[in-house]
User: What shape does this take?
Amino acid sequence: MTSQRLGIVYAILAYGTWGFFPVYWKLLGSVSALEILSHRMMWSGLLLLGILLIQKRWQDLSKLLSQPRQFLPLLGSASILAFNWGLYIMVSTAIA
Assistant: This one.
């Protein structure tokens, strides 16, 4: 398969996944959007820590946490992403 066709397949899978998420979240009707977002953040953090452990890059994390000039912009962008995801989850569960 050529790289162009593979890219098209990946794009279809990505858009299909985004289209399926609201249906999935609607099935979780008894779960609040905040709880879904909290689980997403927790499991993503654990996955990241696992990747750092496997790659033996703990020193990069400690270096980042000790430098506020680099850490604070990342914290800000993470907050914006969390708000974006929370809004997306709330709107998509309300509409679907």
